């Protein structure tokens, strides 16, 4: 410090110390009141950018978790429906084995054939299953119209090959549905193999022994087939279709696991981000309170020093 | 005999002056800019009597003000820098607070918008989810509008502030010029320097330095010349010059500054790094407020254009091609109000992904048309009526009507955030499906969601979130460094002011001591008169017998 000071300086420097102490104290008070270390971005520009990214990441995780529960429930719904389809086909397979028995009377076979017809109707109904929001789940992207209509032997597919995908993590999707033809088969016109509907129609006709032209065109290029041959062909077709349905169920199981894993990953990530966020923006209360006490002591000391020194003057002794 | 009286009264006279000067110091102890005055004594010309030299008493040779030219200059310079950063930090802090306000967070609005798109992707046929997405899009657009409106307000305030500063600068320049005239007159007459006028002039220059950084030169006749750091004269022996702020193209637009000598023509000050509060207002307007607007605007244009391109590639719920989702934004081009030609300039965006966020200035000088990128300060000539740079095409039309000195400002992104708006109103018009896809197709919506992370902007280097985060960080960094500089400059100013005031300021203890000293001397001098009187009486008595 320089040797000479003006009275104004002495007054001003005393005041400056007080004002400075007040400023620091008020900052600490604000921090304590808000519980945040950062009051504006300029307090820590780097942390601000990080906080912003983390906040938006957290909000995205929240969206992804809600997508995941949506995906889970869709997968569960499709799983239920496909399990039902498998049950129908297994029952048909069982009935086919029973119907192949030569000792059965014509009447017995008629009873079995009637049940097969009922199963086929149920299968078409299952293929036209709707989700809770009215979507036909086996219609691909053409969700607003029933995909299957009964066409005596086959059932006509009006859907497309689209598969609904849901985001479960940034850039990661899971398919939740199957297009109808991936579950029930495309049919002999396209692949030369009977789909589930055709198989049941052939089985029913075989049991009754009244194969129509439509049936024989499927089984033996329009030539007559014996009852046993028709039942055999349909049993083979049922096996193939059952395999397809089981593979669909396996795929659904794999997808459910993936979705569950992702949910756990997202939850972990969420916790870690919350920790980082808290480290970046939350106030260390112990430290802040200690600081506030020190600042209060400093302010009181400055005030006291000011009043004491200002009362000193040579004029008091004149 | 009369000699003794003479010596005594010279001492009484001189000491009275000294006591009154001390009194004046005490009286002005709290006067801003007052320099302590000191009385200098000198012995009077002696008499020679009978070969001996006899002193004839004392006189006041001068009243000096305590003054240090170097420290005074230093205080002035520090005042300019300190007020520059203080003022810069204050305005930048307002922008910083605006960005910190949760009500203005564009990133939170984008989060919600993208989340609403996920819901549409999950049920593309649900009108309810589509409605939510439209509402969130509108919220996002209005948030852009809000931030831009607030930034525009700050820019307008800043411009108003500048015109107040310019008025004040002109006033101080007038004051200094008038003081110059008075000081020159008094310096010519004998009797020392006009201390109080010099103090007043120093104070006026210091007040001026707070507004704009200045250099000064004292002339031989005692007058002072004052210049801005850009070398433009504000005060000279011929009087004060006048600063004039040109009307901005828009109330929140960039200003132009001119200076003119009394009765002279305007000269434009092209280098606007002027320091002080005026320089801070100009700089913060350009580097913080306008920059933030251009960055936010770039985000608005970028999001609008990239989103629209993807949206138009998809199909709506009615299975027709998607249209614009956000209303497309056109660059704002304005002609300077000082232009005399009738030519106008327009610009269109060719490729939003190439936009840099810069504004452009088009000048017609000496038959050459140039375009300057105001962010990089690179200039190129325009040959012909159009030029395409940075994803933009500029058109000057009609070319033949250009008049020398014409100037245009093109802001491709600077005002874009104010025009952000949702174009579609029917929820069915949201194109969630791929082209040709059925109603349950969500593939285009998934592609739209992917725009969130895609580095689509600034030549494929930044995502929409990057642009926003960088804009906020930039303001934060600018504010922080201005705050730090303001703190440093303030303590430098305090330290140099302390040193100056240590020399020039009044110390009451010292004045009290001087008062005692002069009082005692006065008593002693009065004793000389008493003694002389006694001697005279003794002589009279001796001779009256």
Question: Key terms for this structure?
Answer:
heterodimer, A: 318 residues, mainly alpha, two-stranded antiparallel sheet, 9 helices, 68% helix, 5% strand, rod-shaped, B: 545 residues, alpha+beta, five-stranded antiparallel sheet, four-stranded antiparallel sheet, 21 strands, elongated
Question: Can you describe what's shown?
Answer:
The complex is a heterodimer of chains A (318) and B (545). Chain A has helices at residues 7-34, 45-99, 106-127, 180-184, 188-191, 196-208, 213-219, 227-281, 285-310; strands at 148-151, 154-157, 165-169, 172-175. In chain A, strand 1 (148-151) and strand 2 (154-157) form a beta hairpin. In chain A, 68% of the residues lie in helices and 5% in strands. Chain A is rod-shaped and about 140 Å long. In chain A, helix 2 packs antiparallel against helix 3 (106-127). The mean pLDDT of chain A is 91. Chain A has 9 helices and 4 strands, in the order H-H-H-E-E-E-E-H-H-H-H-H-H. Chain A is mainly α and 318 residues long. With 545 residues, chain B is an alpha+beta fold. Among the domains of chain B are: 2-66 and 506-543, no CATH class; 163-272, no CATH class; 332-411, no CATH class. Helix content of chain B is 51%, strand content 17%. Chain B is built from 9 helices and 21 strands. Chain B has helices at residues 2-27, 69-100, 106-122, 127-188, 195-211, 276-313, 443-450, 464-504, 508-544; strands at residues 37-43, 47-49, 52-54, 58-65, 214-218, 224-228, 233-236, 239-240, 242-245, 257-260, 266-268, 314-315, 332-335, 344-349, 360-365, 368-373, 378-381, 386-389, 392-397, 407-411, 433-434. In chain B, the strands form 7 sheets. Chain B has a 5-stranded antiparallel β-sheet with strand order 13-20-15-16-17, with no helix packed on it. In chain B, helix 2 (69-100) packs parallel to helix 5, helix 3 runs antiparallel to helix 4 and helix 6 runs antiparallel to helix 8. Chain B is elongated and about 145 Å long. The mean pLDDT of chain B is 92. The interface between A and B is large, with 53 and 64 residues.
């Amino acid at each position: 410090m320089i040797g000479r000071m003006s009275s104004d300086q002495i007054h001003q420097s005393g005041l400056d110390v007080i004002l400075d102490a007040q400023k620091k104290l008020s900052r600490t008070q604000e921090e304590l009141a808000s519980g945040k270390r950062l009051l504006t971005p300029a307090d820590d520009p780097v942390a601000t950018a990080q906080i912003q990214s983390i906040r938006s990441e957290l909000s995205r995780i929240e969206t992804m978790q809600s997508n995941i529960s949506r995906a889970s429930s869709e997968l569960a719904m499709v799983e239920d429906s496909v399990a039902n389809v498998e049950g129908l086909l297994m029952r048909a397979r069982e009935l086919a084995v029973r119907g192949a028995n030569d000792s059965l009377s014509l009447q017995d076979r008629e009873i079995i054939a009637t049940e097969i017809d009922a199963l086929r109707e149920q299968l078409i109904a299952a293929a036209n299953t709707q989700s809770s929001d009215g979507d036909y789940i086996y219609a691909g992207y053409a969700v607003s119209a029933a995909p299957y209509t009964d066409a005596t032997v086959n059932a006509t597919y009006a859907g497309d090959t689209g598969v609904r995908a849901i985001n479960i993590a940034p850039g990661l999707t899971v398919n939740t549905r199957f297009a109808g033809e991936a579950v029930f088969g495309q049919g002999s016109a396209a692949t030369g193999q009977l789909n589930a509907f055709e198989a049941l129609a052939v089985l029913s006709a075989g049991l009754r022994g009244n194969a129509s032209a439509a049936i024989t065109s499927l089984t033996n290029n329009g030539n007559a087939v014996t009852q046993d041959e028709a039942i055999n062909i349909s049993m083979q077709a049922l096996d193939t279709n059952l395999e397809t349905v089981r593979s669909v169920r396996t795929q659904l199981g794999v997808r459910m696991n993936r979705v569950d894993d992702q949910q756990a990953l997202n939850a972990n990530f969420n916790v870690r981000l919350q920790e980082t966020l808290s480290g970046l923006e939350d106030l260390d209360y112990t430290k802040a309170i200690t600081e506030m006490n020190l600042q209060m002591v400093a302010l009181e000391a400055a005030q006291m020093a000011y009043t004491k020194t200002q009362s000193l003057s040579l004029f008091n002794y004149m | 005999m009369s000699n003794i009286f003479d010596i005594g009264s010279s001492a009484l006279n001189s000491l009275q002056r000294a006591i009154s000067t001390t009194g004046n110091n005490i009286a002005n102890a709290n006067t801003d800019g007052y320099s302590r005055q000191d009385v200098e004594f000198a012995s009077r010309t002696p008499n020679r009597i009978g070969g001996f030299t006899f002193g004839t008493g004392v006189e006041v040779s001068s009243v000096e003000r305590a003054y240090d030219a170097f420290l005074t200059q230093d205080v002035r310079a520090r005042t300019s820098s300190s007020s520059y950063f203080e003022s810069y930090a204050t305005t930048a802090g307002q922008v910083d607070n605006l960005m910190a306000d949760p009500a203005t967070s564009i990133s939170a609005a984008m989060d919600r918008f993208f989340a609403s798109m996920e819901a549409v992707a999950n049920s593309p046929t649900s009108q309810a989810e589509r409605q939510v997405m439209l509402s969130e899009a509108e919220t996002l657009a209005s948030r852009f509008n809000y931030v831009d409106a607030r930034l525009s307000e700050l820019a307008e305030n800043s411009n108003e502030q500048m015109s107040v500063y310019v008025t004040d600068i002109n006033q101080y320049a007038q004051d200094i010029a008038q003081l110059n005239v008075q000081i020159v007159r008094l310096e010519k007459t004998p009797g020392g320097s006009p201390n109080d006028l010099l103090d007043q002039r120093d104070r006026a220059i210091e007040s001026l330095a707070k507004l704009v950084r200045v250099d000064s030169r004292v002339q031989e006749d005692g007058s002072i010349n004052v210049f801005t750091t850009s070398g433009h004269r504000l005060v000279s022996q011929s009087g004060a010059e006048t600063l004039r702020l040109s009307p901005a193209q828009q109330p929140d637009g960039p200003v132009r500054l001119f200076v003119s000598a009394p009765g002279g023509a305007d000269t434009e000050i092209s280098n606007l790094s002027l320091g002080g509060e005026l320089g801070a207002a100009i700089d913060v307007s350009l580097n913080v407020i306008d920059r933030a607007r251009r960055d936010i605007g770039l985000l608005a244009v970028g999001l609008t254009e990239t989103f629209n391109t993807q949206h138009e590639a998809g199909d709506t719920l009615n299975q027709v091609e998607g249209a614009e989702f956000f209303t497309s934004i056109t660059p704002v081009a304005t002609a300077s109000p000082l232009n005399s030609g009738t030519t106008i300039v327009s610009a269109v965006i060719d490729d939003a992904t190439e936009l840099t966020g810069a504004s452009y200035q088009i000048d017609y000088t000496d038959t050459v048309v140039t375009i300057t990128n105001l962010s990089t300060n690179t200039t190129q000539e325009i040959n012909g009526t159009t030029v395409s740079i940075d994803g933009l095409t500029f058109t000057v039309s009609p070319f033949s009507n250009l008049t020398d000195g014409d100037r245009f400002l093109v802001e491709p992104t600077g005002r874009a955030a104010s025009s952000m708006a949702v174009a579609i109103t029917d929820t069915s018009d949201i194109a969630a499906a791929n082209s040709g896809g059925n109603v349950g197709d969500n593939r285009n919506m998934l592609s739209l969601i992917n725009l969130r992370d895609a580095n689509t902007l600034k030549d494929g280097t930044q995502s929409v979130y990057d642009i926003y985060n960088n804009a906020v960080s930039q303001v934060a960094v600018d504010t922080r460094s201005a705050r730090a500089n303001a703190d440093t400059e303030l303590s430098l100013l305090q330290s140099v002011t302390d040193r100056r005031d240590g020399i020039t300021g009044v110390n009451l203890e010292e004045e009290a001591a001087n008062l005692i000293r002069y009082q005692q001397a006065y008593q002693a001098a009065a004793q000389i008169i008493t003694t002389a009187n006694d001697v005279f009486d003794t002589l009279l008595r001796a001779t009256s017998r």
